[in-house]
Write a structure and sequence with these properties.
The chain is α/β, with parallel strands linked by helices. About 35% of the residues lie in helices and about 15% in strands. It has 11 helices and 12 strands. The protein has helices spanning about 35-50, 65-75, 105-115, 130-140, 155-165, 185-195, 250-260, 270-280, 280-305, 325-335, 360-370, and strands at about 25, 95-100, 120-125, 140-145, 170, 200-205, 225-230, 240-245, 310, 315-320, 340, 350-355. The strands form 3 sheets. The chain has a 5-stranded mixed sheet with strand order 1-11-12-10-9, with helices on both faces. Helix 6 (about 185-195) links the parallel strand 5 (about 170) and strand 6 (about 200-205). It is globular. The model has no long low-confidence stretch (mean pLDDT about 95). Bound molecules: pyridoxal-5'-phosphate. Pyridoxal-5'-phosphate (PLP) binds near residues 172, 229, 231 and 232.
Length: about 375
């Protein structure tokens, strides 16, 4: 009874969300801090004072939200933890933004709009595991390029393959699960050598924790699509809100995909919450800075105990210790009530991906890890 295309589906496996007990949840890169109290209050007031709004269709294009988001990006320079306006007069305008129901949905529309089934999409091995899932969903072949020995992206090889296939490229920067970031200059030099008439996607889910954003490169490259989310640095994984920033023609193409599938991806409630989130940027700047401080102290803790930890620019660390088995490490933490992420994927079985929590959670984690 199943369609032919079902054969190509290999669904994403998220970090576990068990409810058998209260775990310290450090396995899904969620933000340990709640959303801004001002945003929460504004949403309660919205539901209380204007319940009739929930009976009406929301703005299909989230226009008020896009304007507030452009303002937040311009004020913070696209990196909350650094919080400095863009250099050189670059500005994001609302017509460069497409907003959707979580960046996973946005990514799926990006795949639909820009990647063809007769051109191999170039992507690095060990990156966000939703990319191959969408390749299966839309029948897009990929050309997967191994990372180098130090876990860095093999830029020369990726450029070579994109030119050979005359195809698009997708990367996460900073990357998950490795936590490593490339500089804006590195990506500028990369894009100058890659096909200019194929879309180049940079997924910046983690950039607010100290990476370098490529947003200013939109002034130079008409083929750049930057994907971002409210789920990590904007404490909003439960909101389901993600977006792209790109030249207006590409943002319009993704809007066309949306209007051919689900006209109203963001409900009225989420639009309100996200709007107030953007208006209270200072709160999220502080949250991002706290996460960065906890992360750097945790990296130091691990290195003092001879763990091998990559230099994270994200809200998680990717680590292992020689002689310590990844799975048993994961299991003993779980017994202690702490969930972290590990992978059965060949080559990274011994690594743990640990989300940075708040001070209390990190103290509990450090206590539990002293035994390893
Ligand atoms: C978490 C994550 C996303 C998805 O975020 P949602 O907006 O919650 O769908 C996208 N890309 C990467 C690399 C992520 O880690």
């Amino acid at each position: 009874m199943l369609s032919e295309r079902m054969k190509n589906l290999d669904p994403y496996k998220p970090g576990e969300q068990p409810n058998d007990r209260e775990y310290i949840k450090l396995n899904a890169n969620e933000n340990p801090y709640p959303p801004s109290p001002k945003a929460a209050q504004a949403v309660s007031a919205f539901v209380k004072d204007k319940p009739q709004k929930l009976g009406l269709y929301p703005d299909p294009d989230s226009n008020e939200l896009k304007a507030a988001l452009a303002e937040l990006l311009n004020k913070t320079g696209g990196v909350l933890s650094k919080n400095q306006a863009f250099e050189g007069g670059f500005k994001v305008t609302p017509d460069m933004i497409y907003m959707g129901n979580g960046s996973d949905e946005v990514l799926s529309f990006v795949f639909y709009a820009f990647f063809d089934s007769d051109k191999k999409l170039v992507r690095p091995e060990y990156s966000y595991s939703f990319y191959p899932v969408y390749c299966g969903f839309y029948g897009i072949p990929s050309d997967t390029v191994p990372l180098k020995g130090d876990w860095s992206v093999d830029i020369d090889e990726m450029i070579f393959r994109a030119n050979k296939n005359h195809s698009s490229t997708i990367i996460a920067n900073p990357n998950a699960p490795t936590s490593l970031g490339l500089s804006r200059d590195q990506i500028r030099a990369w894009m100058r050598r890659a096909p200019r008439d194929r879309v180049f996607v940079v997924d910046e889910a983690y950039v607010d924790f100290g990476g370098e954003t490529v947003l200013p490169l939109l002034a130079e490259f008409k083929n750049l699509v930057v994907v971002r989310t409210f789920s990590k640095s904007l404490c909003g994984a439960g909101l389901r809100c993600g977006y792209i920033v790109a030249n207006p023609e590409l943002a319009q193409a993704v809007t066309t995909v949306k209007n051919s599938l689900n006209h109203f991806p963001l409900d009225a409630f989420t639009q309100k919450f996200a709007l107030e989130t953007c208006r209270d940027g200072d709160y999220y700047v502080q949250c991002a800075q706290k996460v960065v401080a906890e992360r750097d102290s945790f990296i130091e803790f691990l290195r003092e105990r001879s763990w091998n930890v990559l230099q994270s620019q994200t809200n998680f660390v990717f680590c292992k210790k020689n002689g310590v088995d990844g799975r048993s490490c994961y299991e003993s933490l779980k017994k202690e009530g702490i969930l972290v992420r590990r992978f059965d994927t060949k080559g990274i079985e011994q690594y743990l991906r640990i989300t940075i929590g708040n001070a209390e959670q990190m103290n509990a984690l450090k206590e539990a890890m002293k035994n390893f």
